[in-house]
Amino acid sequence: MATASITGAVVTVNVEGATPLRLDMSLQRHSYRHCATSTVAGEINSLLYASVDDATVTAEAVEVGEQVETLLAKAKGSWKALFGKTLTVGSGRTYLVDNSGLNPNGSPNHFFVTGGTGVWSKVSQADYVAARDVRRAEEAITARRGRGDTYDYLDSKKLNEKRAEPGGATNPVVQAVQAARVSIAAASADDAALIATSGRKDLVTLIRSV
Fold this sequence. Notes:
Distance between the termini: 52 Å
Shape: elongated
Largest sheet: 3 strands, antiparallel
Strand order of the largest sheet: 1-2-3
Number of helices: 7
Order of helices and strands: EEEHEHEEEEHHHHH
Strand content: 15-25%
Structural class: alpha+beta
């Protein structure tokens, strides 16, 4: 029986049976909800939408693990049949199983989402960085509100006024929005995928406008 859990920004699947395996997926790289803490991006990435919560990710990781167990049983315990295998879970999302070192002779230890409903697939490096920085701006606003700050940062006029205040340039929200503005300018001109992934048309529009 496969089990899965999230620790930090990694979801881990433990596959039991005659050929036990551990498979990890970085949520920094593959979930919008967790990407704010990422410091690197690949040339091509994938992101689960903000609407796909951690409980869903964990449940789907278990589905992946169960399919891996079935494949191992059919292959008489040979994990080589798993490398590069794409598995489809109940939601219709697809996950690829591989080796983190991309070693076809190595034991599978990695999996990641590649497509399906609620997935931004084949994300360029520039688009990924833009998504990450939008998430950082979102979290900066949430943090300020958590401290009792009721300022309307989503109003572009008020945000510009805040930036113009003495010390305003060091405001965490102002800094995060400015960083996201630079990233979005370098990303795709069409914001449809970014808006769908983040669920924050208001914030993406704000960043484009300031």
